[in-house]
Amino acid sequence: MALQPCSRALAGALCALGLGAALPVLAQSPAAPPPALKRTIVERADVAQPGREAVVVKAELAAGGHAGRHTHPGDEISYLVDGDGAILVDGEAPRKLKPGEAFVVKAGKVHDLRNDGSAPMHLIGVYVVEKGKPLATPAK
């Protein structure tokens, strides 16, 4: 593994201090944190509207996590099975969510989902989206 100039200086300093064994650990990049939102596709099928499909998912949002600001190439209809949080849609006031409630996000709207609880949040989502496009796209 080649070291960058700054890393070479650090390596020299560590060796001079007798800490050369720490070099491989310091040279590694930190692992990216696991994503807070995990979607599992349950069903995917064509709908009556040409070029569209329905995608049914089970979703889990980690305790204290955010889905991240994103959009969908179609409408999202989701039902909160358990947990407490909020849906944050650009241009709208945050909406608190509790188990048994549902929400709809229109196609192309930038939004985020936040888990305010200390346990994972579980949702069932139905997306009616354009076929061939990613289910979700990160927002700028």
Automatic annotation (TrEMBL):
Signal peptide: 1-27
Alphabetical keyword list: Signal
Domain of life assignment: Bacteria
InterPro entries: Cupin_2, RmlC-like_jellyroll, RmlC_Cupin_sf
Record-annotated Cupin type-2 domain positions: 59-126
SUPFAM superfamilies tied to this protein: RmlC-like cupins
Entries under Pfam families matching the protein: Cupin_2
Protein name: Cupin domain-containing protein
Higher taxonomy: Bacteria, Pseudomonadati, Pseudomonadota, Betaproteobacteria, Burkholderiales
